[in-house]
Amino acid sequence: MRQTLSLLRDHRLDAYFDDLVRAWQRGDGERLDALIREGGGSDDRWRAELLDRRNAEMADKIAGWLDDGRAPFVIVGVGHLAGQGSVVDRLGQRGYVIRQLAAGD
Predict the structure, then answer these.
(1) What is the pLDDT of residues 9-45, one digit of tens each?
(2) Helix, strand, coil shares, percent, the chain, to 5
(3) In sequence order, what are the residues at sequence separation of 6 or more whose Cβ sits closer than 8 angstroms to the Cβ of residue 56?
(4) Of 37, 44, 47, 86, whose CB has the highest number of CB atoms within 10 Å?
(5) Which residues in the chain belong to E strands, given as ranges?
C-alpha cells in the first residue's frame, strides 16, 4: 500500500498501471513480474503472503478441477500470472500446458 501511495504522490501511478496493462496484453511475463515486484516495494514479505501462498492454494484448486475432468473458467489478478511461483508457473511444473490467448482465439 505504501508503494502505491508513493506512486500516486509522485504522479507515476497512471504510467505504472499503463505499463502493467501493456505488459499483460503483450504476454510479457518478465516485464509483468518486474512491475509487480516494483509495485510491492523493497520488502519481499508482502510477496510471500499476498502472492506465493495464495498462488500455491489456487494452483492446487485449479489442478483438482482439471484432474476431475472439469474445464473451469478461472479469473485471477494479474499478480498471480507471471514469474517464478505464479499460478501459471506452478501449473506448468505439474505438467499442464499453459498458453496465453490473444484476441480472436
Answers:
(1) 888 788 888 998 899 888 888 898 888 877 666 666 7
(2) 65, 0, 35
(3) 85, 90
(4) 86
(5) none
